[in-house]
Protein 1
Amino acid sequence: MLWSYFSSIRWQDAVDIVLNSYILFRLYVLFRGTNVFRVITGIVILWFFQRMAFAIGLIVTSWVMEGFTAVAALIIIIVFRNEIRSVLQAKNLRAILWEFSYKTEETPIEILVESIFELAKSNCGALVVLPGKEDLMEFVRGGIPWNGLISKEMIASIFWHDNPVHDGAAIIHGNQITHVGTILPLSVRENLPSYYGTRHRAAVGLSEFIDALIIVVSEERGEVAVAKDGRIKNVRNMTELKRILLGHVGVFRKKSKYPQRERLEMGAAALASLVFITGVWFSFSQGLDTLTTLKVPVEYMKRNPEMEILDASVDDVNLQLRGSGTLIKSLRPDQVQVKIDLSKAVAGGNTFTITQENVTLPPGVFLNMVQPSVVEATLDIPVKKELPVQVDWVGKLPDRIRVSSVELNPEKVVVIGGKHILDKISTIYTKKVPVNNIDEAGSITVNLALTPASLKIDSGSKEKITVRYSVAKGTETL
């Protein structure tokens, strides 16, 4: 059974699986460690259980989970729009499509520590944020993009009391100050010391939401404090602050094991993406097969322009299709086509067998049966030929009655048909005219009998023939 599934995969399906696996893998690379990634993981797990519920027939459970999955996907876009924007704001397309961040710019700990204590020594207030793995842009407001390299002079100028942005926070990513004048959320806790001002409450407030480390320099007391995980404590000297900063950002300094662990993680993520997308593909294209029948018109392609199709046994065929219920329900008639190649057709009768090659189907839908599977088509070079008309009398005249004369109007007609057919025809007959009740002269109007049916009467000729006949009584009969 499994082999039959894999044998039915087209090269387009393989490209489809690989492409979507890579897209999923890149989403993991871009959003790992963020709140978005954790929510997406929850949605994937919810989708997995929804498919299981559907497979075992839990209709209500499956329906409820499907609704939750759709709503959750919308919530991600609305709630985490800032986090998504910050991840996708790359300087070039390469960072989104294939670049890997194995190395991170190291924060210059020594410069930062010395700058902080110089600010404290001069009673210059400061608020510095060092993000962790979680994105902080959805929790902060305002701020001016800076993107300047860290230096003592840079930090001192930002928090100089006459600088318009000195009351806001400076955000540090790697070796750069990315934003200044940023407003942080204030903590509403009542157990904080009463002498803590706005800077300290802002530091604690942000640390309650995400895993960032916030350094506070008190303007009144010249003290240095550090807030993390909702807690804040004073730092006595540069050695202690350096140790705290190394504990927060020092993971990027371990160059010996990190790249290898990172590559193993990336390899596992790539494999998981491929397995997941393959499972999704089988779920949509193969799982829970549903049958449906469509009536599809037959299209004749690549016909010799000198020949015409004079007759065909069918105009459309019935296709029995199979596929997952989801794909079958979304199937449109214009997505299914039946085409017959006439490039090798000859003048006269031709027989074609409809196979998978003649049927165009959307991915994931497969042909089960065709009715009828054989189509006959007559092709020939159309020509015109003038043929005499003859009445096709049937039956037996009454006794002692005979037809003495017959007059036809018109006596000849122009017939259009295939050259090979008309070459074999010298007379065109009317439809059958019974003679059983003829006992006197008269006239009738009768149609022509066009055999085979591919023959047509030219527009300049009459399709009905008027037959005038005379009778005579005697011993001879017709």
Note: The chain has four domains: 2-100+258-285, 109-253, 289-380, 382-473.
Protein 2
Amino acid sequence: MKKMMGLDLGDAWVGIATSDYMKIAAKPLKTFATAAFDQGLIKLLAQEPIEVIVVGLPITVGGGTDSDQTRTIRAEAVRLEALVLEKGFTDIKWVLWDERLSSKRAASVGKRPENKEEKLMQHAKAAAFVLQNYLDHLSFIAS
């Protein structure tokens, strides 16, 4: 069995979450500096059996349309998919998933971050919210 991975792509940081093998629950995994993410992603894919990568797509809250950031994330997802294919991970499916308000939800859950490490985990929590939303969607359409 394989897992799913969620990504919250940001300008400075990338949050990563993974599902369990049953694809029921998502949990925050790690946050990378954007500059180190390519190498970190390839290393994680070599360690974790992943079949789907869900990328959070920042669609505008008001109108549900694309913004400059939405277009940036779409382009980055295409670039990352090409990188992953180039490195030999050929059977991973990529999904762009609406992430509206996931970062705000991640910041509102639990205690207030007290140090840099806890603040960085907010990005991984946002990725977990995106992935969990996708997992819930799959569960809903399967029932």
Note: Strands lie at 3-9, 13-19, 26-33, 50-57, 93-98.
Protein 3
Amino acid sequence: MKGDRIEVVIDAGGTTRTYEIEATRAGRRVDVTHGRGVVEVTETTRGGTPVRTARFMAGRVLALVEHPAPRPALDDDAAVTRLRRSA
């Protein structure tokens, strides 16, 4: 869905680098696959055609964070109760 994004943090030899891959248009999605030492993040169309692809060595990936686009609340969604901080 447009607005979905994935943030990839990698080890760049003493420092870290952050990359963001985002679904830029309506109907596109962001897919993550991993295997054989490679993490691949791809933005694809509804039909499954890849638009952009980013590949990272799995040994260098420190974090992979998915950020879904904000979606409107539905009528049947339960109310969220906040956690209380203990003293």
Note: The chain has no helices and six strands.
